[in-house]
Amino acid sequence: MLVIGLTGSIGMGKSTVAEQFRFRGIPVCDADEEVHKLYAGAAVPLIEEKFPGVTTNGRVDRQKLSQYLLADPNRFKDLENIIHPMVRQVERDFLHSNANSGSSMVVLEIPLLFESGGNELVDKTIVVSTDENTQRKRVMERSGMSETKLKEILSRQMSDSEKKALADYVVDTSGPIEDTKAIVDKLIEKLRSLRGEAFLRHWT
Fold first, then answer.
1. Who's near 83: CB < 8 A, 6+ residues apart?
2. 118 close to 164: Cβ distance less than 8 angstroms
3. Could you give the CA distance from residue 151 to residue 145 in angstroms, rounded to a whole number?
4. What angle do CA 149, 154, 160 make, to 5 degrees?
5. Coil/strand/helix, residue 106
6. Contact between residue 159 and residue 202 where contact means Cβ atoms under 8 Å apart
7. Contact, 203 vs 121, CB < 8 A?
8. Using CA atoms, how far apart are residues 32 and 34, in angstroms rounded to an integer?
9. In a designed cystine with 39, which of 31, 58, 60, 77 is the match (CB 3.0 to 4.6 A)?
10. pTM of the model
11. Tell me, what DSSP letter sits at residue 192?
């Protein structure tokens, strides 16, 4: 089973690329989506203990947590120490489930793939990229986004140029969405010819 790590900075188009993999029948585990689930479940008491007052009605209030972290960015490490091991276990379960069902290729969509060392645990890496103006436009259209919040997010992410230099493949999403889908389709055909070793080496 070939394990692919999909990443890219905020606003680069990861979701579009991941959705095309899903459309082509390739399972995708979205780390951000799993964090959302943890914020409504298993991570809640642990986060409340470290960040008192950021949970409401048994769920993490992302706005309160964001404000907490913006006020004290050094606390991101405390949050990561809670969340990263839990997400890693979800990814392990996802990989084992798909290996057992005979999947030949799976995707781990991880925003901080290189920053967290996750690139060492996959067979191939894909970085999704676009130009800076397009990125900023996409991000600033998101609900609740501000220049301060964007600056903080980018400060915790490796630069786009660094990621592209480390990637096995780069998908440029600057053009129309149909162009991006066509790029992904061609890449999938290329990936189908590869054999994977990462699952047996790192996840069993």
1. 35, 38, 43
2. no
3. 10
4. 150
5. strand
6. no
7. yes
8. 5
9. 60
10. 0.94
11. T
Indicate the DSSP class of residue 141. Answer: T
Q: List strands edge to edge, sheet with 169-172.
A: 28-30, 105-109, 2-7, 124-129, 169-172
SS3 162: helix
pLDDT value of position 163:
97
- pLDDT score of 191: 98
CATH class label, 2-203: alpha beta
* CA 119/CA 125 separation, integer angstroms: 7
Provide the H-helix boundaries in the chain: 14-23, 31-38, 44-50, 62-71, 76-100, 132-140, 147-155, 160-166, 177-191, 198
pLDDT for 148 equals 85
Least confident of 27-31, 42-46, 73-77, 143-147: 143-147
- Residue pLDDT, tens place only, 112-156: 999 999 999 999 999 999 999 999 999 999 988 888 888 888 888
Quote the pLDDT of residue 156: 84
Hey, what are 1's tokens? 């089973």
